[in-house]
Specification:
Bound molecules: adenosine-2'-monophosphate, calcium ion
CATH superfamily of the largest domain: Fructose-1,6-Bisphosphatase, subunit A, domain 1
Strand order of the largest sheet: 2-1-3-4-5-6-7-8
Radius of gyration: 18 Å
CATH topology of the largest domain: Fructose-1,6-Bisphosphatase, Chain A, domain 1
């Protein structure tokens, strides 16, 4: 087992506590599908409850740290050098439709640098965590990105814009540029797990537009600590939250993916 620091223990404990409610609520969602309105309001309430548990637990363990929360936004604490970046339910659409693929994502930023990330999948009971300089792990096993070097062997994840979002035509262009060059494309609906899966060597790469810091902060730490690169599809690195899209991959595939997505010759 890797040495799990006090910080990671705090993050895991908070995630497991919030997950108890999410798991129970996920069990209810199926029953609500048959009502005309569906479970939307119920899921929003579940999301808020999980966020509240995470905020309380993290605040109790590290009093004064600031927060960036998906639902409540920025909350400044007495300590502005530390900020938790939290998504209580990443993969809300899956949760809403009874699809068992969602996660809690918690990252810690110190003086603007991401130093720790934890992505917890409460259904598969997988805890992905990474800490700057210490590596990334899932349930005690070290994570490494894949060693594939050919785009033609690569399995790539992405996210497709939903109703009301921009970029539908761009997505069509990117998909048609890639589909005939890669082994496969997956769209699973939880960016934090997509990044965790790149870190775990399940996907060779991932790209998506228009994500928010809470969707990706923890996953970025995981990919970097698993030996992967994180930037944007233009190939800019390292990733910063003001970039408009994210590309994560193992080192050999980062540039070929960037070139393929931006329409440049291989
Ligand atoms: P969420 O479930 O926390 O909203 C999948 O493409 C990614 O996009 C997920 O990480 C998901 O995070 C995010 N996403 C899905 N629907 C969204 C919406 N309506 N607004 C913002 N982000 C969304
Ligand atoms: Ca999210």
């Amino acid at each position: 087992m890797p040495p799990q620091s006090a910080l990671i223990n705090v993050m895991e404990k908070a995630a497991r506590k919030a997950a108890r409610g999410l798991r129970r609520d996920f069990g209810e969602v199926e029953n609500l599908q048959v009502s005309r309105k569906g479970p939307a309001d119920f899921v929003s309430a579940a999301d808020l409850r999980a966020e509240e548990v995470l905020r309380e637990e993290l605040e109790r363990a590290r009093p004064g740290y600031s927060f960036l929360l998906e639902e409540q936004g920025q909350i400044d604490g007495a300590d502005k050098t530390h900020r938790w970046i939290v998504d209580p339910l990443d993969g809300t659409t899956n949760f809403l439709h009874g699809l068992a693929h969602f996660a809690i994502s918690i990252a810690l930023e110190r003086e603007g640098q991401l130093v720790a990330g934890l992505v917890f999948d409460p259904i598969k009971d997988e805890t992905f965590w990474g800490e700057k300089g210490k590596g990334a792990f899932v349930n005690g096993h070290r994570l490494r990105v894949t060693a594939r070097i050919d785009l033609s062997d690569a399995l790539i994840a992405t996210g497709i814009p939903f109703r009301g979002q921009q970029g539908h035509e761009r997505t069509t262009g990117e998909l048609s540029a890639l589909t005939h060059r890669v082994a496969g494309i997956r769209r699973f609906g939880s960016a934090s797990l997509d990044l965790a899966y790149v870190a775990a060597g399940r996907f060779d790469g991932f790209w998506e537009h228009g994500l928010q810091p809470w969707d990706i902060a923890a996953g970025i730490v995981l990919v970097r600590e698993a030996g992967g690169l994180v930037g944007d599809i233009e190939g800019r690195q390292p990733y910063t939250f003001n970039l408009k899209n994210i590309l994560a991959a193992n080192e050999p595939l980062f540039t070929p993916l960037s070139r393929a997505l931006t329409g440049k010759a291989p």
